[in-house]
Amino acid sequence: MVVDTLKIPFFSGILIPSTYPIARYLPPYYQHTVTTYLNRLFSQNSLRKGYILDPFGISPFLPVELANAGAAVIVCCNNPILRQVVSLVALAPQSHEFQAILAEISSLRKLESRLETFLRSLYHSVCNICLSEIEVEAYLWERDTSTNLHRLTAKQYQCAQCGNEGLFAITVQDDLNLQRLPRRSLIEIQAASKVLDKNDPAYPAVIDALSVYPTRALYALVTLLNKIDELNLNQRQRQLLYGLLIGCFDLSNGLWAFPSKRHRPKQLSLPTQFLELNVWKALEKSTALWVEAIQECHFLPVTISASQRPKPGEILIFPGRLKELLHRLPANEILAVVTSLPRPNQAFWTLSAIWSGWLEGKAKGKSLRSAFLRKRYDWGWHCRALTAAFQELASHLPKKTPCFALLEEYEANFLSATLIAADQAGFRLDSLTLRNDQGRAQIHWSIYPPNSPIEQHLAKDRQQLLSALKIHLGEIIRQAIQQTLEPAPTAQIHAVALASLVHSSHPGNHIESPSHSILEIVPFQSVSDYPNFFFALLEDTLNTSPFLVAINGEEKSLENRRWWMTEPNLDHSPLSDQTEERIVEHFLHHNTATFQEIDQAVCDQSEYISIPSLSLIQECLESYADYDQHSHRWNLRQEEDPTKRSLEINEMRKHILKIGHHLGYTTKDDDCILWLDPVNRPAALWSIQPTAALRVLLTASQKQEVKTYLVIPGSRVNLLMYKLQQYPFLKQQVGKRIHVIRFRQIRWLVSQPNIHPDLFDAWLNTDPIQYRSSQLSLW
In whole angstroms, what is the distance from residue 423 CA to residue 390 CA? Predict the structure, then answer.
């Protein structure tokens, strides 16, 4: 099958809330993204003729969505926890099934009581107000700066007797409860022995990793783990049990910073303040979170194939390494690689190794044993790891196999690690798109196994070539900004520069470069941390290019700077204006649309690496259309009829010409209306338009001699002011040399009997303009 890689757009999708268990360690997931990609590339008939391969298995919803789209999916997943989560999501279980498992756990016996009663008793305390017995929902721990150890300081509860709720200081009773627990060292031995043997060299690292669990939580979890083998469950029920426990394992640790609401830990390091959640409450919460997430996706149940050749709509989860899988696969039957890219996360990989041992025994824990031995993962290490995976794909899969990769939680070094690794492995870049406001990138490659090592230049030539390369990068960046006519953030600049320096399927798309790939100048093996090497090269380029300037140069961090040209050519519309035009055109053809339809239409027509932001699309919709709460659709307003707007434009022209004559100016009626003073000097330039296009203002900002008045409908003002936020050098001229005027102001002004030239601007400013932020909640 021949894929037209030049026409692969950004696929937007709908974000699944990252609240499901362990979501904080995984890439955000946008439903419908991979389905839309599959539908663009394959017919249902051709999709049945082979397999879709996910070589990383880091996103548990992705293979299930692919299978729901009719694909036969093969997932390589070396992480036992992720395999359990994929299997759980594939079941599409109902709420009552989770509740039944929770009831089974509750009914287990511990000493003379039910297990639920025992676990909840660990969190019994007294109300600080009425002294009634209460159950603590969570305890607050704080680091003592003098000892660097955490101490219990507060408890969170709701008293059924007096109604008091919130955080309260701990009491003597709470300290006594902690002292009654078994010694921590004994609890740690029990927990660690389920993961590795005591004589294993990695065993001390397991004990060290368990320090993220408060003693009470670890005791409760060990007690729970010791009892679950008594449950008599079928395979489906055991899968649900494991899902509940995985959620509980994570909710019970101390990696929940307080009062922060963003919990995405990368390292096993306790925050200064953290909450210790009641373990039974954690089980209940795990149940609720799984139900919410699975219902949100509306997935149909998917069969996890026991065969090495899954049928369409089924998933094969391979539990080993990618190299092992590829040697077993019928390579010519792999239709495409579709995956979400992993990023380094010491916390998740280490916890996964522990949880695997807890759930399935030491044998499963050993498959991730290396996670205990490596404490830090830099981008250089990650680049080499990705290179090894990509080389396996390149050496086993047919030439030109399409590869679609989602890079979520975008950052520059993540993209560098990915593109450099793929280039070293022999991939050819077809397309790269970036939505900076969401932190998302999408990459499409065709696999081209290198027939010979990448040609490399002699070391003595490298300095000269690197100097030429910086000049090349400066021009590439200047051209990219010139195309969009918008100040570009460093993340966008980085993506543009990097994409120009890797092997591409469309080399003619780039201006002449000193090499086809940066790897020809600086070999992969010669740099230990290629992502940081490239970022330093980019920084040097930006700081020395005579064609580029940082419009917020006061920003100390390069990542936060935005870049503009020293000599822009304003011969076309900025990207924000093009986006507005496309949205209006879509409405004129369809009259009504959902946010998702508009968004994807904008993405489909985008010609650049940078995709218009969701907030720009929202502002355009609010400027032109009304939202229907019942149908969840946007409907074009009647006053936006092109004929009506044309009549209004003619009305404004007549009014402005009349006002000019009244004030004693000579007027010239052209595309723009020019007012000339008594000695025939330009006094004011009037531009009337039905849109919020910025091009007139950008042109005016370069001309210092005449005031410019932009006359637009009132419904365009907020959109225009939103766009102006991208151009601080332009925004500061508004209200001084540049004035934005609503249609209604002109109508009011022409109705006044006595208009005095000296008071003219003051009268226009009686209806000031300002930006009001909209809420992006209707899409």
Answer: 9
Sign of CA dihedral 741, 746, 752, 757: positive
Please report how the helices 642-662 and 743-750 are oriented relative to each other, as an axis angle in degrees rounded to 10. 40
Terminal-residue alpha carbon distance, the chain = 35
CB contact at 8 A, 75 and 59: no
Token output for 761: 């601007």
The CA-based dihedral angle spanning residues 491, 495, 501, 504, taken in that order and rounded to the nearest 10 degrees: 180
Q: How far is CA 235 from the centre of its chain?
A: 35
Q: Tell me how far apart the alpha carbons of residues 687 and 674 are, in angstroms, rounded to a whole number.
A: 9
In tens, the pLDDT along 588-638 reads 999 899 999 999 999 999 989 999 999 999 999 999 999 999 999 999 999
- E runs forming strands in 456-551: 488-489, 548-550
Give the closest residue to 465 by CA, choosing from 524, 523, 530, 397: 523
The one-letter amino acid at 490? T
Q: How far apart are CA 94 and CA 100, in angstroms?
A: 10
Closest CA to 603 of 30, 73, 42, 59: 30
Give the CA distances from residue 506 to residues 27, 316, 338, 603, in Å, rounded to whole numbers and listed in that order: 29, 34, 21, 20
Give dist(CA 377, CA 413) in Å, integer: 13
**Tokens representing residue 106 in the block:** 């509750």
User: Domains in the chain, please, with CATH?
Assistant: 5-92+299-343+378-450 (3.40.50.150), 96-294 (no CATH), 642-764 (3.40.1350)
Tens of pLDDT, residues 656-671: 999 999 888 999 998 8
CA dist 555 and 550 (Å) reads: 9
| Neighbour count for residue 586 (Cβ, 10 Å) | 17
3-class secondary-structure state, position 384: helix
In angstroms, rounded to a whole number, what is the distance separating the alpha carbons of residues 6 and 432?
10
Question: Would you say 547 and 566 are in contact if contact means Cβ atoms under 8 Å apart?
Answer: yes
The predicted model scores a pTM of: 0.92
**Are the C-beta atoms of 518 and 502 separated by less than 8 Å?**
yes
| 205-241 core/surface letters (b: 16 or more CB in 10 A; e: else) | bbbebbbbbbebbbbbbbbbbebbeeeeeeeebebbb
CA-angle at 51, arms to 46 and 54, nearest 5°: 130
Token pair in block for residue 485: 């006519």
